[in-house]
Amino acid sequence: FPHSVWAAAPHLALGELGLDADPKVVNLIEGANFDPEFVKVNPHATLPTLTHEGKSFTSTVAVINYLVSISSTKIAPETSITKVVHEDKIDPNFAFVASRNDEELAKTSSGFANIFTSTRLGGLKKFAATPEGQVHKAFYDKQITSISGVHALLNGQAPDEVKQGFFNVSTALWESIKSFIFETLPAAITVGPFIGGSRPGIDDLHVGAWLARIAFLSGGQKSDQGVAALEKRFGPVPEKVKVYWSAWIARDSWVGAYPDNVLH
């Protein structure tokens, strides 16, 4: 799916490692990742998913590590930063719907996030109702409960205490995101301009995709608007982060993952 934050990370990896792949589009808007046939391949129904030589790799970390293992191009190994950038407290997918107050919730509810959630929920229920879906009933029931909760929040159907809890979690999320950008990332960049040194390492493949989503959610539509968007939301960003962003968007792998330099 071209707008998946984590599917972009393996695209960056392919470009950096000089590898080719045969991409298959899984339409997240329509909930196609909940198709029972896809769930057979990836029980988590998440992207990215890679199949190669009879094996399936069903997480961003697993996919990228496998690509690195089969490439003759050597890049810096991952550090603890890869684990940190995948922690729930800075989840870029939750940031897509996160709202800290009624004003932000109204804006989110009137935008693409609500359309995405509604159509995705419809697709999920459709697949769950099929005979093939009954095999995965427990999984589908859990997903329906989770997405229905978000749908209720976006459509004014959630109790006040649930809404306030959502605001609190959203506030904590954006505070943690700012901390990562202003503290964790600069500390991880030593030689620079990348965490991996003069060229992107494994950590950078994950962090680059994550940062692109945060820049997009902050108002950046194109790559050259990324830093300005981050600064509009958070204030002046550290110089190391500016250099990091500039180094990334100048690479061919970036343009391959973000065609026409359009962020998502």
From TrEMBL:
Superkingdom to which the source organism belongs: Eukaryota
Annotated GST N-terminal domain residues: 1-75
Pfam families tied to this protein: GST_N_3
InterPro entries: Glutathione_S-Trfase_N, Thioredoxin-like_sf
Protein name: GST N-terminal domain-containing protein
Biological source species: Multifurca ochricompacta
